[in-house]
Amino acid sequence: MKKLLAALAIVAATAFPAAAQEYYDIDVDLPEYPQMQPVPDSPVYYAPGVDSNYFFYDGLYWDYYGDRWYASPWYNGPWSWVDPVYVPTYVLWVPISYYHKPHHHWSSWRRDRPPRWGDHWGRDWQARHNDIYRGRSGGTARAPLPDYQRGYNRANYPRQATQQNTLHSQHYAYRPQENVGQRYYDQRGIRAAQQQQQAPQRTEAPANPLARPEPTTSSSPVSRGEPRGAEVRRDRR
Q1: Does the residue 149 lie in any domain?
Q2: Comparing C-alpha atoms, which of 130, 149, 124, 59 is closest to residue 92?
Q3: 201 lies in a domain?
Q4: pLDDT tens digits, residue range 96-152?
Q5: I need a labelling partner for 171 at 20 to 30 A (CA). Which of 87, 151, 165, 230 fits?
Q6: Domain for residue 184, yes or no?
Q7: Rounded to an integer, what distance in angstroms lies between the CA atom of residue 39 and that of residue 55?
Q8: How many domains does the structure of the chain reveal?
């Protein structure tokens, strides 16, 4: 039975890398948008003034709390748990010195190096993570910060995920490069809203009041000899 439950857990984790419909309160409760700085030689940002293991990468904020990773498109949550095998490699490569609350198991490790996640989470985790990210890196370019969120502080911060998604899609055009970020945006409905925002608006040409109407005949229901079904197919695209 234990083996069966473990197998089901692995399948569930594979299918749902980010539990985007379930939100958690963690150790982040910021009064306003935090100052973010880039980690040297990395596409990841960190927050010097935030007393947490708090980062930004590929369109998402990341926080390591209670030996678990959480992500959110907004700086103050709500937060979704992410299975550790799907946490992006660049996030895991951040040196320990940028963690304000490092895990106590890391006390003897070098602070100028990343945590030894393979030692911490075991060989099975390391093998699965390597399989997922082998040959795939999200790119070394830093994603733009969602600076529009500076206009929201503790007094007017949007707490509802639907409201956050709408604002994010309206003001932040970046699309994640990592698979976990893409799936997160999909699960929250952000990517669909972004595509809708960026889709060109179709406008009808103004009618010419001097144009003569084209003659029609009863034997040709669609003008210019066009097949009857062509107009329907265009509407469905």
Answers
A1: yes
A2: 130
A3: no
A4: 999 999 999 999 999 999 999 999 999 999 999 999 888 665 567 899 999 999 999
A5: 87
A6: no
A7: 9
A8: 1
